[in-house]
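User: Reviewer 2 asked us to show a designed sequence for the structure in our supplementary figure. I'm pasting the structure tokens here. Could you produce the per-position amino acids so we can include them in the response letter?
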């Protein structure tokens, strides 16, 4: 158990929680963290909210969760289920005990391909389940934009839909049964085809729910006030309307499955420990992505009903602001070559078929219909590998639009409203006109056009009182528009604490009281995720963005283009792309891939830095021990700089932090050694064979590593006795043609010069074989080692000297 002195023990509630959780230690198979650093890392999700939890628990088994429930009841606090932490409505933000099921409870328990079902723990990642299912010709269909880190438990909690919902519906449509804990500490199972006699607690809940839903007056209220059935994406409140579609409330309807209620309940009714999901056959192997371009968003929305007359796999809209955000992203920028003539909006329409020819024929039919109505100006079709690259832009939507300088950013507040698909164009027009005329606000448009839901995000400054007031008023005004169309405020992101206060307005007070009664039936003591959906706090409480108390800190790096160091940290939108595993490809974030610990994500490092800068009043607050701990395993690989949708550059932030730490505490011996690696290598190069051998002598190697402050298991690269520069001076250039086709100046850094000599030789020989004349100018070390060890002022002087040397070399080159 992690309970360092950082814990605030002055709060009586906190002390009681600590006592109860400490009592679990001997009988708890997972881990429990009480330290402030871990609590800070779990204080936020991908929403605009932040609240320091009392503790964070990492259960390994279902029994662990049962013990946590009993401890929470004794401590009179709440349990907040959490998985990837990518929720957008503050679902996993709160002051109770956060229970992270993603770290250890990630087993695929069973795959029954004959019955087309799989049993999984809630921490199983959607894409990793499908990787295991591929050999069976099956897959779990709902496909969120975060599918390479979103877990089945989180998808169930929000009843996630994703891009292909027009074919496959929502997560709840694919859940046969669930197992887990009721709030009174009883273990239970809900679903279809269960033969065991239910425990008394289940009988009581089912009896009370049947009474509530069996009332003709309640049925009338639900059917008249909930979103209209034509709204396929509806997650408003608890899914009482979907239960009424079942037998016995709707004779002849599908069998009653209480999983319909648990789906989308955001962990407020039942703590799931195992899910049995229904699987689907893999769709046709031939894929095509048809992408008509439009001059206006309204034109794209006009085209959407025409597209939906055809059998398509998905129909997504992306607007100009998203494409401009992609242009700021180093990883996504090359994908923009697929678009031309600066479209205001594009539709990404995926078509599946048995053969490529069948796909092309279907796309030709859609294009003919669009052209006959005069919409669209460019109609490309892409196949195979190109599809994934283009979809990356849509999937990274939230992250890339958050990558904007300044305090005004696209805010998640009205982003999840859904209406009937035929109403979408009128709804978007009304909202756009409202934002422009009443607030003078611009809006980002992207999302699931074919399903009647666009993720509209107005640009707001939540650091200012005026911005916070507009945030609230826009939510209330847009709710009026949604209600006028009998839409749903939440299509797939959930109500959480963001939209909870709007539910009485959307459903009416009598229906809202039904929601409160449901919560009381299942969780009378308010243990499970309190303050979400019903009895939520004000939507403006606990907003995470606020200006630093003592202004911006002085830095060595220039962060001015990002709004200072705080602005660089605030680029993190919380979407958690840094939580993907090695199966998803790429390199971000290697430390998280190794530990599966949230503290080792890009997100946690940016969040802790942001909190340090905004919460501390110390003039030396950057030299913070919590920052040291959270930055420790960052290997400065720069993977986040390229792969994070918001291009959060933690390597740069870490180097700045280390400089501040050294200023306050001095430069340790290990950093001094590694920052002088070029000089040391030059000294020991004549003895390279002896040096290389010494690392492999157990006693000597351990002593050397201990002296250098290295882990005893760390391997060392061999040092070459002959440097690349020495080889270059001696070698005879082999030109493939004369005169040369061009000239190349080869920067020989200290690592290539001594450690990666073969790679340097191969690069130079390749360039010469291609007909280039290669020159190797004289210059000093690169300064990379000084940056990595946080000696930025030293690096700056090295770089300045190299600029002078290279400038002179260029004159004569």
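Assistant: Here is a per-position design you can include in the supplement:
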């Amino acid at each position: 158990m992690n309970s360092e002195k950082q814990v605030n023990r002055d709060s009586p509630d906190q002390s009681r929680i600590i006592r109860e959780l400490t009592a679990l230690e001997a009988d708890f198979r997972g881990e429990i963290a009480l330290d402030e650093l871990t609590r800070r890392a779990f204080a936020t999700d991908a929403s605009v909210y932040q609240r320091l939890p009392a503790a964070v628990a990492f259960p390994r088994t279902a029994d662990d969760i049962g013990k946590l429930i009993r401890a929470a009841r004794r401590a009179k606090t709440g349990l907040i289920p959490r998985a990837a932490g990518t929720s957008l409505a503050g679902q996993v933000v709160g002051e109770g005990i956060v229970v992270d099921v993603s770290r250890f409870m990630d087993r695929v328990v069973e795959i029954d391909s004959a019955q087309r079902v799989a049993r999984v723990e809630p921490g199983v990642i959607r894409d990793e389940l499908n990787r295991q299912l591929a050999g069976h010709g099956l897959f779990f269909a709902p496909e969120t934009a975060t599918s390479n880190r979103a877990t089945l438990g989180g998808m169930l909690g929000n009843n996630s839909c994703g891009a292909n919902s027009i074919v496959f519906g929502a997560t709840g449509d694919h859940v046969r049964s669930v197992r887990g804990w009721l709030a009174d500490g009883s273990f239970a199972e809900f679903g279809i085809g269960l033969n065991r006699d239910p425990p008394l607690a289940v009988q009581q809940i089912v009896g009370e729910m049947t009474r509530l839903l069996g009332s003709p007056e309640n049925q009338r209220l639900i059917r008249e006030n909930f979103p209209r059935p034509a709204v396929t994406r509806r997650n408003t409140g608890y899914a009482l309307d979907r239960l009424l579609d079942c037998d016995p409330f709707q004779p002849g309807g599908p069998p009653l499955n209480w999983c319909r209620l648990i789906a989308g309940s955001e962990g407020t009714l039942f703590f799931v420990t195992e899910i049995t999901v229904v699987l689907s056959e893999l769709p046709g192997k031939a894929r095509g992505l048809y992408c008509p371009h439009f001059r206006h968003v309204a034109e794209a929305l006009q085209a959407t009903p025409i597209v939906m007359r055809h059998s398509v796999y998905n129909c997504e809209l992306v607007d100009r602001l998203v494409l401009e955000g992609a242009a700021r992203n180093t990883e996504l920028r090359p994908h923009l070559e697929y678009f031309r003539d600066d479209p205001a909006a594009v539709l990404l329409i995926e078509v599946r078929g048995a053969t490529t020819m069948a796909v092309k024929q279907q796309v030709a039919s859609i294009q003919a219909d669009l052209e006959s109505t005069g919409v669209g100006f460019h109609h490309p079709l892409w196949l195979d590998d190109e599809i994934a690259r283009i979809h990356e832009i849509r999937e990274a939507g939230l992250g890339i639009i958050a990558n904007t300088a300044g305090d005004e950013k696209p805010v998640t507040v009205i982003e999840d409203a859904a209406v009937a698909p035929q109403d979408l164009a009128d709804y978007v027009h009304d909202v756009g006109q409202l934002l422009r005329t009443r607030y003078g606000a611009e809006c980002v448009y992207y999302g699931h056009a074919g399903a009647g839901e666009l993720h509209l995000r107005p640009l707001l400054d939540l650091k200012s009182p005026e911005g916070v007031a507009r945030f609230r008023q826009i939510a209330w005004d847009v709710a009026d528009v949604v209600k006028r169309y009998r839409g749903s405020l939440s299509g797939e992101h959930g109500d959480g604490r963001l939209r909870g206060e709007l539910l009485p307005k959307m459903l009416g007070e009598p229906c809202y009281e039904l929601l409160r009664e449901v919560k009381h039936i299942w969780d009378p003591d308010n243990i499970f995720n309190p303050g979400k959906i019903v009895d939520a706090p004000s939507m403006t409480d606990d907003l995470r963005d606020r200006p630093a108390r003592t202004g911006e800190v002085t830095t060595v790096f220039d962060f001015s283009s990002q709004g200072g160091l705080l602005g660089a940290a605030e680029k993190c939108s919380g979407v958690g792309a840094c939580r993907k595993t090695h199966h998803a490809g790429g390199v971000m974030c290697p430390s998280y891939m190794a530990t599966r610990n949230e503290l080792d994500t890009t997100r946690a490092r940016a969040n802790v830095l942001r909190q340090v800068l905004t919460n501390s009043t110390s003039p030396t607050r950057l030299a913070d021990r919590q920052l040291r701990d959270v930055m420790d395993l960052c290997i400065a690989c720069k993977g986040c700089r390229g792969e994070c949708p918001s291009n959060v550059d933690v390597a740069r932030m870490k180097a700045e932090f280390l400089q501040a730490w050294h200023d306050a505490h001095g430069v340790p011996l290990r950093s001094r050694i590694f920052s002088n690696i070029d000089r040391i290598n030059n000294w020991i190069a004549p003895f390279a064979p002896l040096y290389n051998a010494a690392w492999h002598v157990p006693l000597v190697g351990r002593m050397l590593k201990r002296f250098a402050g290295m882990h005893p298991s760390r391997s060392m690269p061999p040092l070459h006795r002959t440097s690349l520069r020495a080889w270059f001076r001696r070698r005879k250039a082999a030109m493939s043609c004369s005169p040369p086709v061009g000239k190349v100046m080869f920067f020989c850094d200290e690592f290539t010069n001594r450690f990666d000599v073969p790679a340097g030789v191969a690069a130079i020989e390749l360039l010469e074989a291609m007909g280039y004349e290669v020159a190797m100018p004289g210059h000093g070390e690169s300064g990379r080692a000084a940056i990595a060890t946080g000696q930025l002022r030293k690096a700056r002087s090295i770089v300045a000297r190299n600029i002078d040397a290279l400038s002179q070399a260029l004159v004569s080159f």
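For the response letter, you might also mention the following. The longest strand covers residues 345-353. Residues 465-484 form the longest helix (20 residues).
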